[in-house]
Known about the structure:
The chain contains 13 helices and two strands, in the order ααααααβααααααβα. The protein is mainly α and 352 residues long.
Amino acid sequence: MGSMRAALPSVGMVIVLLAQVSNMEVIKAAMSKGINKYVIIVYSDALSSLFFLFCSFLFHRSERPQLTFSILCSFFLLSVFGCSSQIFSFVGIQYSSPTLSTAMLNLIPAFTFVLAIIFRLEKLNWENKSSQAKSLGTFVSIGGAFVVTFYKGPPLIGELSHSGSPRRLLLSPQLSWILGGFFLAAEAFMSSAWYILQALILRKFATVLIIMFYLFFFNTILSTAFALVVVSEPSDWKLGLDIGLVAVLYSAVIGTGFRVGLCTWCLSRTGPLYVSMFKPLAIVFSIVMDVVIVGDAFFLGSLIGAMIIVAGFYAVMWGKSKEEKTTEDCGLGSVNSSREKVPLLQNRIEEN
């Protein structure tokens, strides 16, 4: 029973990645049909906030933790990171592909490590092998991101498709790919900041459903304000019984509400670095969906860059696991030494 409970976060993160990759594919299909990406964000965030409001009243009707002004400000800042990540993700997918998006998500552990050092959540000791591995893995991951962004290469699987959004067709394929890579790198950075702030908030306020409601409530306000500025056509806000409505419902229920809620639950059980360990699996899921289902091409640059990013990713994870093992061994050693001292103390008492 205990082993099953320990495996739940792992199963949960696999489901999170499946939800994320499938949501990317649905959004990509909707945008290719002319559906405005910012409208999708607004509607999906609004539906998600209503869903979590209902869940909060249902499960926390009697007991509700006290909300302070500082916690509300933390929720708002978390929403700024989350909303920015959503926008950068959708724009990046529009200019590139879901496969590139999932490859760039592997930058999250590297960015998380850098931010953790900046905010003194992580210690860096150059004489320690674990710190060397994490530092080297961070630079390798960033280098892989440059490869996958600036080198597209020939298609390995599938044929090169020239269909896409009108704005994407105005740019050359290489420039469009590079621009998408920059937006997706910005998404990875915002996601890293989101993970760190979320972990800090969970220490003070551990009610996940209420956090999710305020997150999507502020997301809806921010995304609506942004969309009202950039969406000029009133007809873009109208949804029919087509792929646009399917994208909004799928993004709200599966891609946003369910995925973020389950990811937050896994984060509260394990921590941000454990959650980021599963990102390389998204590449496999995305390639299968991109090539088999959607019919997009898989490029040599994506393969080489993804392999470099994954290598750097696992270097960071190896360093982190070695560091945690050293800490556990030190703790176990101190406990054993204290146990050995107790009989000696008892013998002296008995002699007296």
